[in-house]
Every structure is written in C-alpha cells, then in structure tokens.
Amino acid sequence: MLVREKNDLGVITVNSITLDQLIAHALEPYKGSVWLANYKGPSSETLIKVGGYEAIAERNFRMNGDRLYVRLYLLISFGKSIRSICREIIDQLASDIEQCLQIPLHDIEIVVTGVVSKKIAPRHIVYSYRMFKTSDQFRKDEIQERDPA
Predict the structure, then answer these.
(1) For 69, which of 3, 76, 86, 98 is 20 to 30 Å away at the CA?
(2) How many C-beta atoms surround the C-beta of residue 111 within 10 A?
(3) How many CA atoms within 13 Å lie on the side-chain side of 42?
(4) Which parts of the chain have pLDDT scores under 70?
C-alpha cells in the first residue's frame, strides 16, 4: 500500500498495482521500442531474444511526506530519440497521477539503462520531471525577455 487516506466517508488507498497500470498506459504508445528494465538493464541477451524484459522490471514508488516519488528503469530501441520519449512518458505519467489519483508529485525519474539494437549497449541516462519542468520555465522566461508582447 502506497497511500492511505482516511476521511468521513471511509478509507482511500492507492497501491503499487494502480501505479503499474498508469505506467503501462504511459508506455503503451511505445510498445516494441521501450521496455521496463531494472537498474542493471536485462540480465542476459537471452531475455532480449525471448522478449522477457519486463520479467525483471524494477519500479520504485515512495511517498516523500505527502508527495509521490517514482523511478523507472527503461530500455529504448536504437534510433529513437531518448530525450523526447522520456519527456512524453514523464508528461503522460505526471498528468495521470495528478488528475486520476490527485496525488501531488515530488518527482518522476526515468533511468535509461540501455539501448537495444542487435545487442544491448549499456547506458545510464537520467531524466526527471523536475528537470523538464525547470527547462520549460527557463524557456518561457527567455522567450518573454526577447519578445515583451
């Protein structure tokens, strides 16, 4: 159980299975090019050939005070834009969590542990919700400074 809130009408609980469904919804557009992994990436090339990436998947959820922290480990297919895919997954997951569950976010981190082609090229690339949010705010401020319309 991740979140438990008690009110006059009863008890509301959110568990990791609910978050797993939201993650699956965020990854659905990238089926066949993005897979859940663990902090090491897949443990063997055999899992790649069999397609058993998600058997070893690791997802971390925890509450920091009243805010939710999520960390996902992903493998991404070669030739795909890692930054744009991570940004879209983070945006989708953030909106689902805030709108559906109405839980405020502390952060969402995506760690890309590998790039899949014929073999897996290990990587350690980290993108976070806070990073994208900060860069968006910076861009908006920069545009307003150039064009004070």
Answers:
(1) 76
(2) 21
(3) 23
(4) 1-5, 7, 41-56, 136-149
* DSSP state string for the chain: --EEEEETTEEEEE-HHHHHHHHHHHHGGGTTTEEE--TT--S-HHHHHHT-GGGG--EEEEEETTEEEEEEEEEEETTS-HHHHHHHHHHHHHHHIIIII---EEEEEEEEEEEESSSEEEEEEEEEHHHHHHHHHHHHHHHHHH---
Q: Which residues contact 107 (CB under 8 A, 6 or more apart)?
A: 69, 70, 128, 129, 130
Residues 6+ apart with CB under 8 A from 6: 12
Amino acid letter, 20: D
- Tell me which amino acid residue 97 is: I
Prediction pTM value: 0.78
Nearest alpha carbon to residue 93 among 83, 105, 81 = 105
What's residue 143's pLDDT?
A: 47
Choose which CATH entry (3.30.700, 1.10.1060, 2.60.120, 3.30.300) describes domain 3-146.
3.30.300
The two tokens of residue 65 are: 């005070």
